[in-house]
Amino acid sequence: MFNAQYFRTFITLVETGSFTRTAQRLEMTQPGVSQHIRKLERYLDKSLLDRQGRRFVLTEAGRRAYDYALKLFAEHEQFRHSLDDESLDSGECRIASPGSVGLMFYPFILGQQQMHTGLTVSYSFAFNHEIVTDVLAGRHDLGIVNEAVRHPEIDCEAWHQEPLCLVVPADFTGTCLADLMALGFIGYADGINRVGGVLRQNFPGEFRSMSHFPRQGFTNEVSMVLDAVARGLGFTVVSRLVLETSPWQRQVRELSLPHPVQETLYLVTRRGMRMPRRYTRLLEAFREHRHHERYGHGDPALADLGEVTGDDHGERLG
Q1: What's the pTM value of the predicted model, to 2 decimals?
Q2: Going by C-beta distance under 8 Å and a sequence separation of 6 or more, which residues neighbour residue 1?
Q3: Disulfide: which of 30, 214, 222, 305 matches 23 by Cβ 3.0-4.6 Å?
Q4: Separation CA 75–CA 56 (nearest Å)
Q5: Residue 37 belongs to what H/E stretch?
Q6: Nearest-angstrom CA–CA distance, 148 and 150
Q7: Pairing status of strand 315-316 against strand 252-256
Q8: Does the pLDDT value for residue 274 go beyond 50?
Q9: C-alpha span between 105 and 117 (Å, rounded)
Q10: Do residues 268 and 143 make contact, with C-beta atoms less than 8 angstroms apart?
Q11: Model confidence over 111-166: pLDDT tens digits?
Q12: Which helix (H) or strand (E) holds 269?
């Protein structure tokens, strides 16, 4: 018969290396410890210890049983914490987002996990349609997407906005839309829509269609697109989140636009789901973190959304 306490005793025995110390730690008698181990061996029908006088080493079955027991109790604790919807700092967080969001949000959540050891994080990077499918299937509790979702079984709400950045090679000297057209653009999944939206907003009298722009390359990994831009191969438009986390941010330049464009991020959950409080706190803390990074302690209404990151200064285009 399965008995979790036998596995707990076995874990303690392996960790202490002593029947006596195991009995002391678990407040048992030494014969009681021996009995738990014998019953566990009988249940598994395998010898777990190779006894050598007062010492022992694990058999192959013992090593496998120890690994299993550790996983068993880790999953038990994870499950137990996940039932506490009111806890702010414990339980599992199952989240999915596009890479453009996760590049900064995932490290931020890991930092929260370091501060609150009761939290565990399962984070997936995926495209919008995959996120919605997985939320519906229960594989994620929360999805973050950059397009509004309309589905009868999904709740979708606007959550946060990030500036979109028009990024060019560091040595780009162009001053007009024709210069960008001559340079060509580097694409990524959904990138063409972002580029088109930014150019349409800032060059309403000149911009017609992205079909007039040479396509200099494509990658399905948004975190890599600025590598191509840094090499002078083209321009692109990415979220400020991508630019600020890119290792190439000092080899590229953001052009300051007369009409900054914001990307809206949306939260998607299964319809009617009551969001555990730990998610609410993480989401609010991240928004405060981004606000502080972008505006400091000043009035956000006075902040210039076209301001570039790092020590570089934006050049106004148009």
Answers
A1: 0.67
A2: 43
A3: 30
A4: 28
A5: helix 30-44
A6: 7
A7: parallel
A8: yes
A9: 18
A10: yes
A11: 999 999 888 899 999 999 999 999 998 889 999 999 999 999 999 999 999 999 99
A12: strand 262-270
Whether the per-residue pLDDT at 103 is higher than 80: the answer is: yes
Residue 125 in 3-state DSSP? strand
Taking every pair of Cα atoms in the chain, the longest distance, rounded to a whole number of angstroms, is: 89
What DSSP line would sit under 147-183, residue for residue? S----TTEEEEEEEEEEEEEEEETT----SHHHHHHH
Reference 195, options 138, 280, 257; nearest CA is 257
- Element holding 92 (H helix, E strand): strand 90-97
Domains, the chain, ordered by start: 4-82 (1.10.10.10), 90-161+263-295 (3.40.190.10), 162-261+306-316 (3.40.190.10)
Token pair belonging to 291: 């606000």
Which tokens is 32 given?
A: 């009681």
Whole-angstrom Cα distance, residue 186 to residue 73? 48
Q: Measured between alpha carbons, how far is 99 from 256 in angstroms, rounded to an integer?
A: 24
| Cβ–Cβ < 8 Å for 141, 282 | no
128 token code pair: 């919008």
274's tokens: 């009551």
Burial of 201 (0-12, 13-18, 19+ CB in 10 A): middle
